[in-house]
Amino acid sequence: MQAVIIHPADCVAVALQDLSKGTAVTLDNGQCVTLQDDITRGHKFALKDLPAGAPVIKYGFPIGTAKCAIAAGQHVHTHNVKTALKGQGEYAYTPAPKAQLPYVERTFKGYVRKNGSVGIRNEIWIIPTVFCVNEVARELERYAVSRLGEFAHVDSAAALTHPYGCSQMGDDMTTTMKVLACLSAHPNAGAVLILGLGCENNNIGVFKQYLDLDDDRLFFLNSQEVTDELEEGEKIIDAMLAKANEAVREDVPLSELRIGLKCGGSDGLSGITANPLIGRVSDLVVGAGGTSVMTEVPEMFGAEQLLMNRAVTPEVFNESVKLINNFKQYFISHGQTVSENPSPGNKAGGITTLEDKSLGCVQKGGSAPVSGVVHYGERLQTKGLNLLQGPGNDGVSSTALAAAGCHLVLFSTGRGTPFSTVVPTIKISTNTALFKKKPYWIDFNAGEIVDGRSFDELANELLDYVLKTASGQQSVSEKRGIHEIVIWKDGVTM
């Protein structure tokens, strides 16, 4: 197959391979279009003549308007299409028919914590309250890793270093503390060391107000109070390893799984292969009573009404409207335009406007009803598909998913990235070329959709991969020891 029309109402097709000017492309609907330009894989060409100002339809919805007349067979991209997005909007609640989700009865081997929460990893986490002790945290991580062979039930160790915790003011400081507190409570950690300096704004005494002090997985070390913080830290790590080693994996139903949905380095195939594949897996998890979480709010702009209409109640609809409009106001308050997206890499991959990107991005949410809205720095309260406040930035949004309590992240990419956050991050390529080129970045190949594999078949394979990962199989990035966190900063530094 040379190209695909995603929706019958579309006036563009997407190239599935590099195509040369003059090629006669026959599409699934029987239409034949002779190309008037070279078309790179993932990029679009017009199926019919479009006058200036006409809407450009992809996914069955407008992705912008034609800047000038576009002839059938011409390349359709940033040079001849502009966004139609504006600022804050008013939305009407028109409930969509409730989708009938598939039901599968599956289990994974997880760790059931004393408070009833379930983790898919049993790790030692070292969380600095402030950047000043980052290197101490990394040294303690190395010490913990050196002892893992002695503790059969401890999976790994990670220092969750970051550049904050002092000289922040107001809500910015509070946000840092909330995110670190959420991570401290994550069930993927079998034991957590809160590592402080002593004089920072986020000192241990202040930070404890955000923690569950009844959680026996928490340990504390204030570096200024001891002579040798490494010596004292290693003693605490020894106790943490012994504590975490008491946990064992047991069968847990799929209904307890919480998956984060993320895309980064997207290309023109993201909304055709990897994102709809993730959407099908999300529906399988939600259909079984589990939870999936979609973030990257700016990458909902242009497709937000589709999500809002899936809200389970008017109250959830209203929260969704606030989520979108507040984020648009965030852009405006900083003097930025709402449509300042996609990135240069996205454009090179064939994504033309933010509407184009968003309509592809929301495919990750499948067809499940939207059951809840989660604010940044808060933990999940509702099962089903949730929308989480967060930006498009890979580091910030992936960390937000982890902080909310997601066990793992399904991360689609067409351009590729080595980034992974502190929970297992399964990288899913949109195309086979990337999967073959970057075996140390990519876990799963959704590009096989283009090669003729069915969505249902691949969705079941990806679910199998997810459950194996939840049961202890390491992702590609875990094998490399990649576990980054990035906290969203929006305030004054003193």
Class computed from helices, strands and strand pairing:
alpha/beta
**Low-confidence residue ranges:** none
- Total individual domains: 3
Overall 3D form: globular
Query: Beta-sheet strand percentage?
Result: 15-25%
What is the β-strand count? Answer: 23
What's the alpha carbon Rg, rounded to whole Å?
Answer: 23 Å
| Strand ordering within the main sheet | 19-20-18-17-21-22-23
Fraction of residues in helix: 25-40%
- Give the biggest beta sheet: 7 strands, parallel
Descriptive overview:
This protein is of the alpha/beta class. The chain folds into 3 domains: 3-82, Archaeosine Trna-guanine Transglycosylase, Chain: A, domain 4; 108-250, Rossmann fold (3-Layer(aba) Sandwich), CATH 3.40.50; 255-479. Helix content is 28%, strand content 20%. The chain is built from 13 helices and 23 strands. The strands form 6 sheets. A 7-stranded parallel beta sheet has the order 19-20-18-17-21-22-23, with helices on both faces. Strands 1-2-5-8 form a 4-stranded antiparallel beta sheet, with no helix packed on it. α1 (134-146) crosses α4 (229-244) and α2 (170-184) crosses α10 (394-404). The longest helix is centred in the middle third of the chain and has 20 residues, at 314-333. The protein is globular. The protein starts with a strand and ends in a 15-residue tail after the last helix. The mean pLDDT is 96.
